[in-house]
Amino acid sequence: MAGKGREIKRRIKSVNSTKQITKAMELVSSAKLRRARERLNKTKPYFDTVKKTINEILADSENIKSIYFEGEKEIKRSCFIVITADRGLCGGYNTNAIKASLLSMRDKEDISVIAIGQKGRDYFKRRGYNLDGEYTNILETISFKDAKEIGALVMQLYKQEMIDEVYLVYTSFLSTISHKAECIRLLPLTEIEETGQEKQEKGDAVFEYISYEPSPSALFDYLVPQYVESLIFGGLVESAASEQGARRIAMENATDNAIEMIDKLTLNYNRARQAAITQEIAEIVGGAEALK
């Protein structure tokens, strides 16, 4: 019993130390999640406004001539901006983001990757993908400057025809406990498909003639880089919030599992100790009977 009891006590001590670490990480992630959600709520209106403006120009203007608009050119090389975390211990957050990108990728010889986060960078680098950009340690303190820098790289590659289309892979923040990896196309832009409700509202409303100066195409070319930057920034903010939410849930589950394991080990220790005591009493009684 002595050896077995000591082993169980060592395991209990080890699991208890792990529980303290996971509990601390859970509390830290909760605090970071609150800040990330506040930032998300502040930035979303800007993102929605830029997107709405682009959609209105596309819907109200015909025959727009722009390199950013989908035409007849053949898609030969695709660029994927993949946002992952710099660290693990966040459940399936990184795995789901990488899977979402792989589902849309063709042969890796025709793929360009701009990796945001160490986990995604390491994954694609080990497998021989072409990395045109690497950005790490920016999700903790996101600024619009980061989005502008990444957007400038994307626009440069696109204008130089080194890439023919651009996708953004990020994790959408649905709620504190719900997050979904998304893969959306940034460039080239396509015409907007209206829903039935939007068509009805458009049919009932009276539209005034809108004039764009110097031209719809010039305004379109001016707005698209800002549109790309805002989408990237929105993806960064949502991914950061999702990462902290996923890590909080993972650490909460790990803490609960540690508590359950400690309870089981404590029960096993008590049973082993009781069995040893019972055996000692039986040996004492047996010895006493032998002396009679």
Task: List the topology elements.
Elements: H1 2-60, E1 78-83, H2 93-104, E2 111-116, H3 118-126, E3 130-135, H4 144-159, E4 165-175, E5 178-187, H5 196-204, H6 216-291
User: How do the helices and strands follow one another from N- to C-terminus?
Assistant: HEHEHEHEEHH
CATH top level assignment: Alpha Beta
Considering DSSP H and I runs of 4 or more, what fraction of the residues is helical? Answer: 55-70%
How is the biggest beta sheet arranged?
5 strands, mixed
CATH architect. name:
3-Layer(aba) Sandwich
**CATH homologous superfamily annotation:** ATP synthase, F1 complex, gamma subunit
Count of individual domains: 1
Strand order of the largest sheet: 3-2-1-4-5
Rounded to the nearest angstrom, the distance between the terminal CA atoms is 29 Å
Question: Mean of residue pLDDT?
Answer: 83
Content of β-strand: 5-15%
- CATH topology name: Pyruvate Kinase, Chain: A, domain 1
> Rg to the nearest angstrom?
29 Å
| Secondary structure: number of strands | 5
Protein traits:
Pyruvate Kinase, Chain: A, domain 1, 5 strands, alpha/beta, 292 residues, five-stranded mixed beta sheet
Provide a concise account of the structure shown.
By secondary structure, the protein is α/β, with parallel strands linked by helices.
3D architecture notes:
The protein has 292 residues and is of the alpha/beta class. The chain has one domain: ATP synthase, F1 complex, gamma subunit (Pyruvate Kinase, Chain: A, domain 1). It contains 6 helices and 5 strands, in the order H-E-H-E-H-E-H-E-E-H-H. It has helices at 2-60, 93-104, 118-126, 144-159, 196-204, 216-291; strands at 78-83, 111-116, 130-135, 165-175, 178-187. Strands 3-2-1-4-5 form a 5-stranded mixed sheet, with helices on both faces. Helix 3 (118-126) links the parallel strand 2 and strand 3. Helix 1 packs antiparallel against helix 6 (216-291). Mean pLDDT is 83; it is low at 192-203 and 205-209.
